[in-house]
Amino acid sequence: MLFKKSKKLLLLSRLRYRTGRIRCRWVVVAISLFIATASFAQEKTRLAVRSYRIANEHKILQEFVELLAIPNLAGDIVNIRRNAGLLTQMLQKRGVQTRLLEHDRPEVPPVVFGELKTPGAKETLVLYCHYDGQPTDSSRWVESKPWQPVIRTNSIEAGGKILPFPRTGESIDGNWRVYARAASDDKSPIVVLFAAMDALRANKIQPTVNLKFFFEGEEEAGSPNLSDIMRKHADLLKADMWITCDGPIHQNGQKLVFFGCRGIVSAEITVYGSNRALHSGHYGNWAPNPAMMLSELVASMKDENGRVVVDGFYNDVEPLGEFENQALAESPVYDQTLMRELGFTKPEGGGKSLNEQINLPSLNVSGLLSGYVGAQSRTLVPATATARIDMRLVKGNDPQRQVERLKEHIRKQGYFIVDKDPDQETRARYSLISKITTSDGYKAFRTPMNLPIAQKIVAAVQSASDGKVVRMPTLGGSGPLSIFAEFTGSPQMGVPIVNYDNNQHSENENVRIQNLWDGIEIYASIMTMK
After folding, report:
1. Does pLDDT of 29 surpass 70?
2. Are 451 and 324 in contact (CB under 8 A)?
């Protein structure tokens, strides 16, 4: 009797096991069919967007050039407002509800805000770009001017020649480049977003998410008034994810997403010699030379491997987690190729790769000024010397705490610190004087890489990319992600589109046209992500 019951239970167990396996297989098949259907739909969208772009390349470039032609320094409020006005028109033309988020002071650049709701959408994305650009020396642009866009057959370094802008019907080579201030940083993603929206609408493809647009006008000036604007409009700006469109793709050409970026704080350091410049023959070797003094001071801040030796500089660094370390390990290392291209043989970092270095805080001398060189050179002992230093921050660093550490290091070198030019009494009292002025800066920010919505965005970017997408825990550059998170509580990530060799923050800034075309497909995919 017991044997018969056991045999019956065994047969029943086998039946249940087989049924379970069948059910499991059906679940796997169902999931596979869903993924295949979603992939087919995404590929169909990608091809439709590409067809629209091919048919409208000249119109897209024309709109891009129109935006690039307006000067965009944050301190030039007249032209900054011209930019804001044109962006408002561009958004409204696409059916986006648009308004300017103003500061209490009219001289502060406004944020251009837009909102496009999708019926039934359960998720909201904020797409962030900035429309201001870095200051530039127009005399150092090769055969063009910062706000007079030109097209070249390739980069200047590769011998690219200026072409007339192609007329309708003429072919456009994806390797051509548009040269202008803000061509890559950061007006190109703005036009890419607009073209993606146009392509979807032309093909009657509706976004699957609600979209908000946040275009800032003083990011390159350090976003000094962003917190005030965010505070006034925090409820308006909440979302499931903020996506910053700023920054370059990987140096090897692979598409890239990032989950955070470094913060930044800057300091300007001036040291003093005599109270006027002196003849080097009559007073050299006797009067103190501030250029030499500043050189020694700056050199004291790093060791021979480029590691910052300011006490406590690395103390607050929050270590990367499991997902971040895995992504970093999987990221391509391109250092040797980059070094050959950029013309140096020994990088800083004592053997650490570029990928590792951008996840650490840095101290960079971005400019030195003392006396004269070139055609204006004179045999003088200069009266002052000034260095501009930027410190990139990672998660855990506080901007002002890093500034205080820098000041303490300068004190240890024997300097008396002031915040304005010293008077005669101060000069008579101290032999080493340093004036230091600093920015407020902002902190670094990093979003957990395993958030479900972050994974959906990565999948959307991957569906519009031919190769594997690189996932970076932190972008090397800085952006106000921590400010966005502070006032909205929303996670942040970035999807850059421009070429890495774009000369951003320098003269001869450019963007490769194929990067624009690829960016249109990427952002159309994000707008329709499943």
Report:
1. no
2. no
**Residue the block writes with tokens 């491997």:** 305
> Which two structure tokens, joined as six digits, stand for 82?
């011209």
pLDDT of 23 higher than 60: no
pLDDT at 33: 45
Predicted TM-score (pTM) of this structure: 0.86
pLDDT tens string 225-237? 999 999 999 989 9
What's the chain's length in residues?
Answer: 530
The pLDDT score that the predictor gives to residue 14 is 55
Return d(Cα 179, Cα 162) in angstroms, integer.
10
b/e map of 125-154 (b: 16 or more CB within 10 Å)? Answer: bbbbbbbbbbebeeeebeebebbebbbbee
| 428 CB-near residues (< 8 Å, 6+ apart) | none
> Cβ(189)–Cβ(513) under 8 Å?
no
Closest CA to 479 of 396, 400, 393: 393
| Residue 490: count of CB within 10 angstroms of its CB | 18
C-alpha distance from residue 119 to each of 140, 214, 282 (Å): 50, 21, 80
Cα–Cα distance for residue pair 4/214, rounded to 1 Å: 73
- Give all strands (DSSP E) within 149-282, no chain letters: 150-152, 162-163, 177-179, 210-216, 241-244, 256-258, 260-272, 278-279
> In this predicted structure, what is the pLDDT of residue 41?
76
Q: Phi and psi dihedrals of 455, rounded to 5?
A: -65, -35
SS3 (DSSP) at 415: coil
- Dihedral, CA of residue 189, residue 190, residue 192 and residue 193, to nearest 10: 120
| Contact between 197 and 109 (Cβ < 8 Å) | no
Q: Measure the CA angle with vertex 332, ends 328 and 336; round to 5°.
A: 120
Q: For residue 136, give every residue at least 6 positions away whose Cβ sits within 8 Å of its Cβ, in sequence order, or none.
A: 146, 181, 506, 507, 509
Mean pLDDT over each residue of the chain, to the nearest integer: 93
Give the integer Cα–Cα distance in Å for 72 and 22: 63
By DSSP bridging, strand 150-152 and strand 256-258 are unpaired
Find out whether 286 and 330 touch, Cβ atoms under 8 Å.
Answer: no
DSSP for 67-80? HHTS--BTT-HHHH
What is the rounded distance in angstroms from the CA atom of residue 131 to the CA atom of residue 185? 8
Distance CA 414, CA 310 (A): 15
Locus of tokens 């004592």: 350
- What per-residue string of b and e applies to 159-184 under the rule 16 or more CB within 10 Å gives b? ebeeeeeeeeeeebeeebbbbbbbbb
Q: Name 437's bridge partners.
A: 268
Side chain identity at residue 30, one-letter code: A
Tokens linked to 271: 């040291």
Question: Residue 31 pLDDT more than 60?
Answer: no
